[in-house]
Specification:
The strands form two sheets. Strands 5-4-3-2-1-6-8-7 form an eight-stranded mixed beta sheet, with helices on both faces. The longest helix is centred in the C-terminal third of the chain and has 25 residues. By secondary structure, it is α/β, with parallel strands linked by helices. Strand 9 and strand 10 form a beta hairpin.
């Protein structure tokens, strides 16, 4: 079987993240172009086994970034022999997509029609697809959607308590995000427990700057904490998560600003950063908390308390839990967060093994609970590889 190369692209509003994989799961290169449009825009990348490289992009937008990325990969000889396809992370697929798809004109139209649901993300995703179609017009491109995994939610889990006509007219419902991560780690958890994925009950907690938890029953998402947008649910790095909806109007009145200003506060100045007044980075907060910073301690306590409550709530639709999985930058590395969270989950018969938990950081994975406990484990997510894998699978259907 010939080895194929897949380029994975994740276009954000002011960034482009990329990876190059071969079909043997080797990550040949990875990098990030960030601060696009700013004078200090920069591309950083690393070739497998090599040192980090950086290149100033001089206020470049997406076109300049993607051109620089493909040139860097080409100059390194990584396009020798060609690449087979390009896989794109697309944030919002609405109700159009319940799985990854090969991109064509109809798919592009539907992605564009979901832009009002993810105005900071889908337009950027479209730009990335169009720019790479210009550079590689003969290559198939694949869209992998954050929302697709959650299209299995039952209607009573995704319906808001609002006039039903808003759902019918505007698509206003809970969609959920981080689907590629939740799918990957739940599959891995079932394998490590020697259980069939189609006969498993798993809660996945993806904890990074954005955070969400999902109940996965027999391989299908049946409830999740994020909603119409990534603002709903858990406390996050700069996002408030769940709040009283009336806070929008209350703050607009108190601060004499409009609702869009309040939405910006809830997305960009709240969460861990808002409570601590220090940082949205859990590493910084844990260090500050250890030295007695009470605001950092409070931010961590709120984060863990609300996470534990959400995990307990997600046990309801599952009926039983085979495993709780921690993943993402915080989930994989913040042993303190896992400890504080699990200590509040005795109702789920969950008991932490402090030694296992302490050593399960920095890429280490495994079970962190005692032998007689409901299982909690740490699994490193590999969202880029999921995109590459889906792209490879769809590529096979075209041949």
């Amino acid at each position: 079987m010939s080895i194929k190369k897949i380029l994975v692209i994740n276009c954000g509003s002011s960034s482009v993240k990329f990876s190059l994989f071969d079909s043997q799961k080797n990550q040949l290169a990875a990098g990030l172009a960030e601060k696009l449009g700013d004078a200090d825009a920069v591309l950083s990348w690393r070739i497998q086994g090599g040192d980090k490289n950086t290149l100033s992009l001089h206020s470049a937008q997406h076109r300049g970034a993607i051109t620089a990325i493909t040139k860097a990969l080409g100059d390194a000889g990584l396009f020798d022999g060609g690449i087979a396809a390009i896989g794109h992370r697309v944030v919002h697929g609405g109700e159009f997509f319940s799985a990854s798809v090969v991109i064509d004109a109809a798919v592009m139209k539907n992605i564009a029609s979901c832009s009002h649901l993810a105005p900071l993300h889908n337009p950027a995703n479209i730009v990335g697809i169009e720019l790479l179609a210009e550079q590689f017009p003969q290559l198939p491109q694949v869209a992998v959607f954050d929302t697709a995994f959650h299209q299995s939610l039952p209607d009573y889990a995704y319906t808001y308590g609002l006039p039903y006509q808003y759902y019918k007219e505007f698509g206003l419902r809970r969609y959920g995000f981080h689907g590629t991560s939740h799918r990957y780690v739940s599959q891995q958890a079932a394998q490590r427990l020697h259980k069939a994925y189609t006969d498993s009950s798993i809660i996945s907690a993806h904890l990074g700057n954005g955070c969400s938890a999902t109940a996965i029953l027999n391989g299908k998402s049946i409830d999740t904490t994020m909603g119409l947008t990534p603002l709903e649910g858990l406390l996050m790095g700069t996002r408030s998560g769940d709040i009283d909806p009336s806070i929008h109007q209350f703050l607009a009145d108190q601060l004499h600003c409009d609702l869009s200003d309040i939405t910006a506060i809830l997305n960009n100045n709240s969460g861990l950063f808002g409570i601590s007044g220090l940082s949205n980075d859990m590493r910084t907060l844990c260090e500050a908390a250890a030295t007695g910073n009470t605001r950092a301690q409070l931010a961590i306590a709120v984060f863990c308390y609300r996470l534990a409550k959400a995990i307990a709530a997600l046990a309801v639709p599952l009926g039983k839990i085979d495993a709780l999985v921690f993943t993402g930058g915080i989930g994989e590395n913040a042993a303190t967060v896992r400890e504080q969270t699990i200590k509040q989950l005795s109702i789920l018969n969950m008991t932490l093994d402090t030694q296992k938990n302490a050593r399960t950081v920095g890429g280490e994975q495994g079970i962190i609970t005692t032998d007689n406990s409901t299982v909690a484990m740490v699994i490193a997510t590999q969202e880029e590889w999921v995109i590459a894998q889906d792209t490879l699978a769809l590529l096979d259907t075209l041949s």
